[in-house]
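User: Sequence recovery, please. Input:
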């Protein structure tokens, strides 16, 4: 009998994690490294990626590669993928975690540039990386692609309409890529609810906690490390018969 916990190991595998230097991405970097996975930490600010890479290598003894990349820029994504394959010869896991939801005064004041930026970071980059990495995975030994969406995709609100629309698109391409790259590549999505990452410091936390107590089954927002269970499941052999799935991790919102 195979040890069920052994199916969650990622020994000697390679994971690319966008938005990997902070928030939920940082938690996934730590989690994957703790079960033996080499990690490529991709984010816009190379200093943050480098600092985390040093910490991960010292703590877990795996390879951690920092890489500066704006996932909203189509032309930067090919070089990222090439760099990973030149270093490791493969990628076993891709996590499309990078995202943004900028504030705006009113819906009619959203500029074309802001609209395009929201879609570029939240959807276009994930589409392009999935196409590039997924095709290589399918040609080699397979792998797992994980998109990080949002509950806003199915429950949009006035202050996040462009972001919600982009995340709804991310849910959709999850299913599309699962069918495109199956059977060797699994593609799944974590539809995350509100997590208390560094971004939440800008929220009205008193109002948020009151709303969560009333509207969430668990009565609270998520702690960043509570994303880890779903991420490890989708990344590892534990989810070998799961693809095209969109899993809500939102405290019962």
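Assistant: Recovered sequence (253 residues):
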């Amino acid at each position: 009998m195979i040890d069920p916990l052994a199916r969650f190991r990622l020994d000697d595998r390679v994971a690319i994690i966008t938005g990997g230097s902070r928030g939920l991405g940082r938690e996934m970097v730590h989690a994957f490294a703790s079960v033996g996975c080499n990690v490529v930490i991709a984010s816009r600010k190379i200093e943050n990626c480098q600092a985390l890479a040093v910490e991960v290598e010292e703590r877990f003894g795996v390879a951690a590669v920092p890489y500066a990349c704006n996932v909203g820029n189509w032309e930067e994504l090919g070089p990222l993928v090439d760099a990973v394959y030149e270093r490791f010869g493969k990628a076993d896991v891709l996590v499309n975690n990078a995202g943004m939801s900028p504030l705006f005064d009113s819906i009619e004041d959203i500029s074309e540039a802001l609209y395009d930026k929201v879609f570029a970071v939240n959807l276009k980059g994930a589409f392009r990386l999935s196409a590039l990495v997924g095709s290589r995975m399918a040609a080699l030994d397979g792998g797992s692609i994980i998109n990080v969406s949002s509950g806003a995709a199915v429950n949009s609100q006035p202050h996040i309409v462009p972001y919600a629309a982009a995340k709804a698109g991310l849910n959709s391409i999850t299913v599309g890529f699962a069918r495109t790259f199956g059977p060797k590549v699994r593609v799944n999505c974590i539809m995350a609810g509100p997590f208390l990452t560094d971004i939440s410091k800008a929220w009205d936390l008193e109002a948020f906690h009151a709303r969560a107590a009333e509207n969430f089954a668990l009565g609270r927002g998520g702690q960043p490390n509570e994303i880890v269970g779903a991420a490890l499941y989708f990344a590892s052999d534990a989810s070998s018969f799961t693809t095209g799935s969109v899993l809500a991790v939102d405290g019962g919102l």
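The beta strands are 14-18, 38-43, 64-68, 93-96, 143-150, 185-192, 246-249.
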